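dude i think i finally got it to work??
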Amino acid sequence: MNDLDGLVEAARAAFATVAQPAALENEKARFLGKNGSVTALLKALAQLPPDEKRAQGAHINAVKVAIEQLLDRRRAELARQELNQRLAAEAIDVSLPGRRRSAGGIHPIRRTWQRIEEIFASIGFDVGDGPEIETDWYNFTALNSPPDHPARSMQDTFYIEGTRADGPLQLRPHTSPMQVRYARMHRPPIKVIVLGRTYRVDSDATHSPMFHQVEGLWIDDRISFADLKGVYTDFLHRFFESDDLQVRFRPSYFPFTEPSAEIDMMFTSGARKGQWLEISGAGQVHPTVIRNYGLDPERHIGFAFGSGLERLTMLRYGIDDLRQFFDSDVRFLQQFN
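look at this
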């Protein structure tokens, strides 16, 4: 019990020391995140006897509520401090002449979106679009992640109340469901990219509960990993308008591709010279997924890749905090127009 009570005090001390909202959210992850202390205790309940589990669970939930209250209070304090600082620094001079209504501009994420569409359209890719609310089958099962598959935890998403005959409704954690939908409506050769909003239970300086992703798919009877490397490497050079970068493919694991790879890039000049940065996940489409397309894996083969639009935009413009994209601060957005 003392250890649990100590968690509340540890959270109180940690929250009190931070002076920025971004740092506070990172401290929150230590206690309430997917790998946080409270989450670990809740997962450990499964190992306890029923009576002890009930008592210990109630205490852990009380600790969780106490930490959430401390977090909300500290958020409010930081917001109040920031508002007071802005009011002091941005006092309105009523003697100034009136301001004209400024013209709108294109959001940096939309700029990246349009640039990606232009690049892939120039090499023959269609642009697909699909629903943001999906069934479990399209989100996971059709992509070789059946119920209870451990890989599902990598893409924990939000669920909609109520269910349908074909499974519970969810916000899509990736644009990959459109792979299946598009392939079931078209015959090979299939060349398509899908851009759109996606959702995962994650929030810090480099992650948002809502973000944007581009998914690429090329299916034919003579497609190899070499085509994937050529297409994506050419895309990066054209997107960043630079030949001063290197690309590498690291072996990795994704349930919907085999073999799979993480794609990294490194600038060979400038301030970020010599730093490898993860930019995409990719691989050859798994035979099970090919079957779920309604195609024969003995005849058809292909590759897929997925990249975050925020990550690409941050690297292109030198932005270090993803949350600036969603704060609606006109001073930040005006830099791109």
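Residues 2-89 form one domain.
im so relieved honestly
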